[in-house]
Structures are given as C-alpha cells and as structure tokens.
Amino acid sequence: MGEGADRPRAGIVVTGSELLTGAISDANGPWLARELAGLGFEVAHVVAAGDRPDDLMRALEFLAGAGVALVVTSGGLGPTADDLTGEVVAGFAGVDLVPDEAMRVRIEEILADWGARTGFAGPALDEATRKQALVPRGATALPPVGTAPGLVVDRPGGPLVVVLPGPPRELQGMWPAAVAAPAVKDLLSTVPPANARLLRFFGLPESEIAATLREVGESRDLSGVEVGTCLRHSELEVDLRARPGAEAVAEELAGLIVERHARNLVSAEGATVDELVAQALLGKGFTVATGESCTGGLLAGRLVDRAGSSAYVAGGVVAYSNEAKTALLGVPAEMIATHGAVSPEVARALADGARDRFGADVGVGITGVAGPGGSTEAKPVGYVCFCVTTADGTVLARDPRLRGSRADIRERSVDTAMHLILRAVAPRGA
Amino acid sequence: MGEGADRPRAGIVVTGSELLTGAISDANGPWLARELAGLGFEVAHVVAAGDRPDDLMRALEFLAGAGVALVVTSGGLGPTADDLTGEVVAGFAGVDLVPDEAMRVRIEEILADWGARTGFAGPALDEATRKQALVPRGATALPPVGTAPGLVVDRPGGPLVVVLPGPPRELQGMWPAAVAAPAVKDLLSTVPPANARLLRFFGLPESEIAATLREVGESRDLSGVEVGTCLRHSELEVDLRARPGAEAVAEELAGLIVERHARNLVSAEGATVDELVAQALLGKGFTVATGESCTGGLLAGRLVDRAGSSAYVAGGVVAYSNEAKTALLGVPAEMIATHGAVSPEVARALADGARDRFGADVGVGITGVAGPGGSTEAKPVGYVCFCVTTADGTVLARDPRLRGSRADIRERSVDTAMHLILRAVAPRGA
C-alpha cells in the first residue's frame, strides 16, 4: 500500500567475506535498519559485500542509483590489508585520504594499551596506527569506541556516507556520535517522523489482513499508508507507517484492523507477548512454574529471558522420561499407562505438578510429539498437549497439531504456551 | 588470502519490507550463502530488498552487473499484493507471466486442506490460488513445500534465477528440487568443487590463527587458499577453501593449524560440539541430567534439540530460587547460606542433585550472575560456576567470568557447559 515516496531513503552496506560464506549471520544490518526506520527513513536496501574493493564500490554506486540520501556502512575499518572501507569510500566521494594527526595520537594511545596487554608492538603496530588515522579529505572522524575511528563523508551530490566499525558493540556505541555529527543532523532535520504503529495477532493468517486491507481500500484512500505484515514467533505482526498527511487514515485503518480481528489481537501498541506475560504476572504477584517434555526447557528459558524474571519465575522441570514425570512432578504412572505420555491428562498433571513442587501460582504443562520419531496414528508428529492451571482455579487446555520440523514444532510450542499463559493470567476484556 | 577469482559468482536477494525495518533478522541469506559456497560458488553479495518492484528489479540488475552466474531469491511468493517476485523476475528475464493449470490445481488442493482446518475460504482464497499459479513463460516451476511454488528462470545472457519462498522451512525444503532442476544442474557442472575444510576451536582467540597464518605464509605460498575465521557459539571456526590446484597446500595448512592449536581443537572435520556430545553419550550408553539456574533451561533445551535425544537426556530442573534448589535438587540450604547461590559448591551440588534425582550417569550444574542485577564485588555480572560430574567419578569444574549482555552470558554459559560435558564424557586423547 503506497510507495512511501515522500520519505528520504537510506541504504546499508555490511562488509566482511564471512557474511558471504554463511559462516555468520549479520547483526548490524537489522540493528541499523531499525534505527534508520525509527529516525523516519525508508530503508531501501541492506547489501552485504565481501572484502573486495570493486564489490564495495559497486554496492555504494548501487545505493546511490537507488536514490538514497544516506548510506551507513559497517566493518572494514581494522588494521589489516582487507580492511579497506575508508579507502573505497574516499574514492566513492572523489577525494583522497589524508592523515589526521589528532586521531593518530588518539589511536596510538589506545593501541599502546592494547599492545601492552597482548605483547604486540613494533613496526606492524605503527603501520596499523598510521592506516587507521587516514581520513578522507573533508570528512569528519568519529572517535573510536574500540580502536577504529568512524567517518562521516559528504559526497558531492549525495549520498552522505557514515562509516562505522564492524563489531556490533563498537558500532552501536558509536551510533550516538554519528547521529550527532553536523552533516547527519542537517540531513535528519529534513526527515519527517516515523509515525509507525505495530499490531500483533496470534492465530491469524496473513491472508485475512490482506482481505481486510482490500475491503477497507474500497471505501478509503489508503495510498498514504504503508502496511507490512510478517510472521514472527508464530505471531502476525502488522506494521503501519503513515506518510506525512496520512496520519489520520493510518490511525483509522489501525483501529479497523484491531476491531475486525479483536479475537486474535495480542497487542495494539506493539507490546510483545513476553512483555505482557511479565506485566500480568508481576501485576498479580504471581509466580509461574513449568513442567516440560517435548520443549525440553525452552519455555523456562524463554520465561527467564527477561531481566528481573526471578520475581515471577519459580522454576521448572524438564521431564523427558516417564520416570522423571512421575518422580519429579508426581504424574501418576497409571495415568501415563492409560492415556499415554502425550495426552491432555498428562499435560494437566505436569502443570499441577510443577505448580505444586515449586509452590507457584501458575503451572504450565507441555507434552507432545516433536518428531521425527515417536508418532502414532492417533498422535502424529506435531501433536502437542498444553495445559495452564492457576491457584485460583483457572484451567486452560489445548491440543493442536503444529506444523514443521522438530525445531519448528518446539518453537511453536513455546509460542503457544506463552499465549496460553497470557490468556490464563490476563483474560481478554479483563 | 587469494581472491578466489576463478570461481563462478552467485548472488542472493532476500525480499520483504520487514527485513528493512529491522523487525526481523534474515535467516535465508546466511543459509543460502553457505549452500552456494558449499557448491563451489563465490557469493558476491546478499541484497535485502523491500516489497517494491523497482527496488527488486534494481537489485537483480545490480547482481547481473556484478557478474554473477546465478541469483537465488527468497520471499515475495505469497498471495498478497506485495508478493511480486514472480512478476519482477519475469520482467527481468524479458518474458510474461502465464497461468500454469497443473500448478493451480495443486495449490487449490493444498489450500482447500488448509482452509478446511482453519475455517478460512472464499473469493480471497481463489484469488490467491490464481496468483500463485502464474509462472514466467519458459520457466520451470518447483512444487510447493508450503503453498507457493518456486521457479527456475533462465534469463537470456544470464544470470540464471532461482526463485524460492520466504519461510525458511519452505525454502530449505525446496532447495534439493532447485539444485536438481535441469538448468541449475547444467550450471553446476561448470563449477569447480568447493574443497572446503572446516576446523572448530574452543577458547582460542582469532589473533592466534592470524599469527599462525603469517608464520606459515613466510615459508609457503598460501595465495591459493582462502581462509576465513569466525566466532560462532563461542567457537572459532576456521574455514579453508582451496582454489583449483591448491588442494595440497590447503590440506597441509589445515594440518599445521590443527597441530599447533590441538589443545583448543573441537573437531578437525567440521563436527559440532552438539554432535560430539550426542555421539559420546550414546557411545557410552550414558544419560545426562541438568540442574540450571541462570541459564533457566536453555542447556536442557539445547541437549534435547537433536532428534533421538530421549536416548541420552534424562531431564533437568530449572532451579531459579534457593528454595527450588533445595527442594528439587537437594542443595543444602546451609551451603547456599555459607557460599552463596552462585558458587562452585552449589554448582557441584546442582550437578550431583540432577544426576541423583533423574538417575542419570552425567550431571551438569550451572549457577551464575547473568545480570543486569544481582552482582556483588566478589561475584560480578558474568561470573558463572559450572560443574559436570559423572557416575564413574569424574568431576570437572569451571568458574569463568563471561562477557557481554544478559543474553550473551546465558548463551555463552550454555556453550561452555556443552564443551565441559564433552570433556567429561570424551576426554581428549581418549
């Protein structure tokens, strides 16, 4: 919906040959994309380029051709021969590299300290210092967070290029200085605010949102609203961005989507199920305990993921074997014999057992067939039984058949359990 | 080391506006890069493009300009209006879209089944079916793994374009069919084998490998070997690729690296610590049980990640509170009072308690300060105590201070525990 053509565009180049062998997943691209979108840019592309000067230059020219006002690069600022971002960006801007004496002294201090710790010194170190203190003529150098300075390089006719180091900690640490650099500040003053709204749904297929958009679009002009959908952690995220002037339409559309799909709504303000579960448990002063079989501890791991979770997570048992279910969570052996280890009865007993053993207010039981083995005709791969019980008598049970690989099924099981906990602790409309 | 210029190049385009708002991290780019590198291609670029036809077309043209012989795209094959990869790739190849009747029937069957289960149906579904069954003239359609078919589109003058769906499960499921498609097979017959070798080390800094490479490079010509290093799951992965003719040098170099860093070697043949732990436990007929505090179930989750893990994972307890440590794993309350919940003593008691309660052969205890709260001067954030004990009397303990955020510390704790289990069950040189 809408091309969002009014927003200035930005592009990202992440460098490093290791990104192109699949050896490593890039963390800087998504991080920078989120920051740039938050500043109001439309991010046109994220491009990964290896440590080859021609490829990096071609990537910069590609982004210039895509009409971006700003390019942010990550990586290639180190002391070794394949660290060549500064040089290539200078060439892209049509200027030469000049030594920055103040920066050289600064880097020398940092490296002296590092050399003392690691035993590295000598001509190789001096050469590295000299190389890292070269700055494209007219560019602004950003103080190092690790050892390498960043750069802000204004190319005549655009785009503005911000050059940042590759290690995520250094890149993120340097970002505030980059955003505060005069040339970047000037550019930002021309960017309209993001006006973004994020809706989350559980159990709603993407095609339903598409149908709603088509229907609403018949009576309203939605061309000023950009709508993106994406499935994440088994939730459908609907992302609305208004172009300047279309803010009211976007708000109205968000309201209509929420109203029409209220049954599946998780949050209308962008909160995650993890945040909502934590809030709900803290709000009621409840603790939660888990009895997991097929998810093998992943639900407990997800619950304690948040800082401060010790206030509401009592603990959990991973009871993979039948003996462990009985010995550690008190699931009657004859119940397992009668109904099978994967059954709604056992899920309930796991929930009650966890609640009892940890003295918790909320118990969660999960038992299922994650596959690839262990299935029967009645209990195929993906059949998972969930139960959430609370001290005040709520019992919520589900036994869906989940799709996908072993990893998918376990991940979706954890997602499903989180939503079931939320419903048990913060019932809709409550 | 070396430009690998002899290899045919490939490019990857991942599509989806959600990749450009930072809402989601792309999993397909790294996966495809690894596959393509494994097939012997040099991957030139991974480009993320939003759901805008112009941007997608420009990305394809950029890759063609970078001299790639093969482009693989992911995403944009769904039923909604912003799913336009098929259409744009048809335009890129200079052909029109034509309905594929057999494919339409196939998709209709799949969607009918899905509609019956979810209760969704009607004109929106018919329209989605029609759209997804459109194929660029002359292209090969690849059978759907989810609902969307893939495509192999041969552009006159190159590159060959393989169009795959966005959900990782569907993309990975369709990959064997894509690689087996006649046009792709023809191209692959011209690609020299990758000759890749992957070495894994634990506890070895990258600079040590760099030093070894410098030293070996003084007496040997290493220009035919491309060496990449990358830190993943706390392991240093060293990836060696030989250009045609340099296979023997690469083998010799791999041998020298392994010999020099034998103390830190995890595997010289690419096996992961997860595989090695599973093999070692199965080989000895051992079962393992966990007593986790700060990692909150993530170690148990990692252990049961593998299919068939019920043969060697007995279970685990997430004992977040002191009461749970005592009640469920028998950690003496006075031990906690004397030494603190985060102490080598409690780690040992957690390991022994888990082993005892689950009747397992190997027990693992983890307790630490994941932060941001809970630290003291003596026990700062990142201080984590590990202990692995076995029924035959082995006791391995560590209490390092790990770096990074809460999530980093928990992840590194799980990695460290996996390596400690491996050492306990399969001692080096045994």
Q: What can you tell me about this protein's structure?
A:
- 2 copies of one chain form a homodimer.
- By secondary structure, chain A is of the alpha/beta class.
- Chain A is built from 15 helices and 17 strands.
- Chain A has helices spanning 28-38, 53-65, 85-93, 101-118, 123-132, 168-180, 182-188, 206-219, 247-260, 273-284, 298-303, 322-329, 333-339, 344-358, 406-425, and strands at 9-15, 42-49, 68-74, 97-99, 134-136, 140-142, 150-154, 160-164, 196-202, 225-232, 235-242, 265-267, 288-292, 313-319, 362-368, 384-390, 395-398.
- In chain A, the strands form 4 sheets. A 6-stranded mixed sheet of chain A has the order 2-1-3-8-7-6, sandwiched between helices. The first copy, chain A, has a 5-stranded mixed sheet with strand order 14-13-15-16-17, with helices on both faces.
- The first copy, chain A, starts with 8 loop residues before the first strand and ends in a 5-residue tail after the last helix.
- The interface between A and B is large, with 96 and 98 residues.
List the helices and strands and how they pair.
The structure is a homodimer of 430-residue chains.
Chain A lengths: L8 E7 L12 H11 L3 E8 L3 H13 L2 E7 L10 H9 L3 E3 L1 H18 L4 H10 L1 E3 L3 E3 L7 E5 L5 E5 L3 H13 L1 H7 L7 E7 L3 H14 L5 E8 L2 E8 L4 H14 L4 E3 L5 H12 L3 E5 L5 H6 L9 E7 L2 H8 L3 H7 L4 H15 L3 E7 L15 E7 L4 E4 L7 H20 L5
Parallel strand pairs in A: 1-2, 1-3, 3-8, 13-14, 13-15
Antiparallel strand pairs in A: 4-5, 6-7, 7-8, 9-11, 9-12, 10-11, 15-16, 16-17
Helix pairs in contact in A: 2-3, 4-5, 8-9, 10-15
